[in-house]
Write a structure and sequence with these properties.
homodimer, alpha/beta, 434 Repressor (Amino-terminal Domain), Rossmann fold, six-stranded mixed sheet, five-stranded parallel sheet, about 15% strand, elongated, DNA-binding, transcription regulation (chains A, B), LacI/GalR-like_sensor (chains A, B), transcription (chains A, B)
Chain lengths: ~350, ~350
DNA sequence: AGAGTCATGTCAATCGGTTGCCAACGAGAG
DNA sequence: CTCTCGTTGGCAACCGATTGACATGACTCT
């Protein structure tokens, strides 16, 4: 507004300040660099007065520890990598926040990376990150077990929403939410439903389907799988044809995005939701309470999942093997997209 | 599903493989480490046959360049830091994707960081990142000019949706979108509108308000500012009281989140949108086309903004001063939340 | 006074890769 | 046959911080 881009201006590029090093501090404080290092990191090792003086000088010079230089001899960077199958997927918001909270409180730094839904990108990103972080958190990984085990050979690794034998993984138990959801559908009178599955490479989609299948059988509800599909609005929209062909009265979608897509397509095709078709999603993303009708869904406590996963990873780093594993559960959230099926 | 957590399993923690170094390669290839370094990075400097042999050995040993070690002497990490005021704000999705695309194609690595809407967190994060990246991209920064200039003293820095004299900044011109929006409201018959402003620290909110004010005056439309408010659903909801008190027929909100919040509150209070109240947002986030009615909004081409900003930053790194600055424009998107005001 | 303890600070090696400078070598020119 | 020059590869210093080993000096105890 009041800021015409100014050519010969302050802070412009060019002459950059080289950051202060412990050598600079040592020189102006009149001690040796190793003393500076110890004064800053080993409380008590150095005389209190000397330490005070060193800290003051450091402050004055605006000293910041160079993470690269520090990481070289110690092999520790104080950094944790979090690779998400898609950072812009609303599902992971709470998870990211949960992870951030714990990481900050433990004094580590978070490096977020995006796999952009591509196993290749994910693999490459993981490999690149591997050497510059202390540990890796893989969320909703699309990699196969072998590749994940390979990565885990180099650095501690924790999985979220994915399980690989021998590796720590945090997966909320889908059962409670699914049970409540099926009880809900059954009590409304639905006898025949469909599951809109996600990508074939999604381990989580498989888990959800298997659990639904079990529980539907147990309740004598008919169930069919429709898919695999892409886990997006568009994927949900595309499935409407097959949903109608299947003549089911209710659909459980792999995630809310697909559920919303299906809802949009249904609206466009004059299929009333929930009267003609009940829809249930998974994840309770931002957006599933914005639609009309709002989406009934099964949510995971992803903020707690994020926290737990990071705690687990940090324990791994510190070789603290007190894996006091909390179990986390999914939860059924009834909203407006489910109702008794219209009598035929 | 078929994966009972197994205790004595492969890839378990403990014995980790130390990564291969250029010294390992040098030893098995029978050359000196410096030759390896040159073979890998200075094409042509080393005899083609020797280079071939070294590359093969490197491949075989699964060698990965240690980014820390490499960064120490060169001062370059091949990494770019992107600090977003809130990673989970849907506004920035396209921007992040745009940035990712360019960064990947230029062979750099993206480090995403979240300021969590807090200037303190932002400042701290920026400082921590500063030493481990080659350049910094600040998106929607909440820091004051002085602090930003301070950060820019150490590393190249580019701003998005923010302008500080002397620093490169990418800000799409709000004028085209706002003009169209006001023309639209005027043609519908609105004579008196309100702007729901964002946080007082938001530079962008100021720009939007000033532009609206100018253009409203020019069209002889009455306009008042309501705010500052928090830029969330909740912030939008809370504003309903003041909106009604102001007796305006249309509201332009600082962003879509607030617009949606206002819409929800209006629904709950039996105020019909758009008949009783027209609402326009900014940003066109995921979600603003999910509501009923869908939200009319003014969008920025954020994917292009992201691309442009990264290009600019990389040019800065390479001292390429061919700042072929593209100008980017906002765009008006008419949806369902605007209509002629109900006759009183 | 001499031996033993402890607190304090320094030396120098190390992490892995980069790079300026030099040495060895072979080829072509005169 | 010597001289010059370009090619190829090695030596060693350096980036900034960490850390084991050690020197110094003060202090205690007998």
């Amino acid at each position: 507004m009041t800021d015409p881009p100014d050519a010969r201006s302050p802070g412009a590029s060019g002459n950059r300040k080289p950051p202060a090093t412990i050598y600079d501090i040592a020189r102006t404080a009149g001690v040796s660099p190793s003393t500076v290092s110890r004064a800053l990191n080993k409380p008590g090792r150095i005389n209190a007065r000397t330490e005070r003086r060193i800290r003051d000088v450091a402050e004055e010079l605006g000293y910041r520890r160079n993470p690269m230089a520090g990481a070289l001899p110690t092999g520790r960077t104080g950094t944790i990598g979090l690779i998400v199958s898609d950072v812009t997927n609303p599902v992971y918001f709470d998870l990211i926040h949960g992870a951030e909270r714990v990481i900050a409180s433990e004094g580590h730094t978070l490096v977020l990376a995006d796999a952009q839904e591509s196993p290749d990108t994910e693999s490459e990103t993981a490999e690149r990150l591997l050497l510059s972080v202390d540990g890796l958190l893989l969320v909703g990984s699309r990699l196969d077990d072998a590749r994940i085990l390979e990565l885990a050979e180099h650095k501690p690794l924790v999985l979220v929403n994915r399980s690989v034998p021998g590796l720590p993984g945090i997966v909320p138990d889908p059962l409670p939410g699914i049970r409540k959801a099926l009880d809900h559908l059954a009590s409304l009178g639905h006898r025949s439903i469909a599951f809109l599955s996600g990508p074939a490479t999604s381990w989580m989609s498989g888990v959800r389907w298997e659990t639904l299948l079990d529980e539907a059988l147990r309740r004598d509800i008919g169930i069919v799988e429709i898919g695999p599909g892409i886990p997006t609005l568009e994927g949900g929209r595309q499935s409407l044809r097959r949903v109608r062909a299947a003549r089911v009265t209710a659909v459980v979608a792999y995630n809310d995005l697909m559920a919303i897509g299906l809802l949009q397509a249904a609206k466009a095709a004059d299929v009333d939701v929930p009267e003609d078709l009940s829809i249930i999603g998974f994840d309770d993303i931002f957006g599933s309470s914005l639609t009309t009708p709002t989406i009934t869904t099964i949510r995971s406590p992803l903020d707690r999942v994020g926290e737990t996963a990071i705690r687990r990873l940090i324990a791994e780093l510190d070789e603290d093997d007190h894996s006091a594993d909390v179990t986390l559960f999914t939860e059924f959230i009834e909203r407006e997209s489910t109702a008794p099926p219209r009598a035929r």
